[in-house]
UniProtKB/TrEMBL annotation:
NCBIfam families: cyt_deam_tetra, PRK05578.1. It is an enzyme of class 3 (hydrolase). Residues 5-131 form the CMP/dCMP-type deaminase domain. It catalyses: cytidine + H2O + H(+) = uridine + NH4(+); 2'-deoxycytidine + H2O + H(+) = 2'-deoxyuridine + NH4(+). Signal peptide: none annotated. Its cofactor is Zn(2+). It comes from the Bacteria. Keywords: Hydrolase, Metal-binding, Zinc. This enzyme scavenges exogenous and endogenous cytidine and 2'-deoxycytidine for UMP synthesis. One of its GO terms (molecular function) is cytidine deaminase activity. This is Cytidine deaminase.
């Protein structure tokens, strides 16, 4: 089964996810929408914590939610930030996304007209992932 990436739908879902963000400290509401290999779209938002290190980003929330629902592979992620220019995923999110789709398409959108279109392998070249552990044995 070939899945086409509907970026308009993913963008709407990412923006909708941002409305559920819990951001009492930063006021930086981020939303993410991932497209799984079986065609499902799963949303995530950032969830802050008074102990700042325990905050979870939107991309990781989406991945963890999708995995909890049984998905195995991600084809694409769209990230919305409430900024004038798009913001790519942070390093921690890049690593977690790599676990489920090292070649996934990545789009970052914002309140302005600019868009970042790239791939995870471009954002995280030479990534450490499952293949490294399996080849160690």
């Amino acid at each position: 089964m070939t899945i086409t990436i509907d970026w308009d739908t993913l963008a709407r879902e990412a923006r909708a996810a941002a409305r559920h963000a819990y951001v009492p400290y930063s006021r930086f509401a981020v939303g993410a929408a991932i497209l799984t290999a079986d065609g499902r779209i799963v949303r995530g938002c950032n969830v802050e914590n008074a102990s700042f290190g325990l905050t979870n980003c939107a991309e990781r929330t989406a991945i963890f939610s999708a995995r909890a629902a049984g998905m195995d592979e991600v084809l694409a992620v769209c990230i919305y930030t409430p900024t004038d220019v798009p913001t790519p995923p942070c390093g921690a999110c890049r690593q977690v996304l790599n676990e489920f789709g090292p070649d996934m398409a990545v789009r970052a959108i914002c309140n302005g007209p600019d868009i970042i279109d790239t791939t995870l392998s471009q954002l995280l070249p030479g990534a450490f992932g499952p293949k490294n552990l399996h080849d160690a044995g």
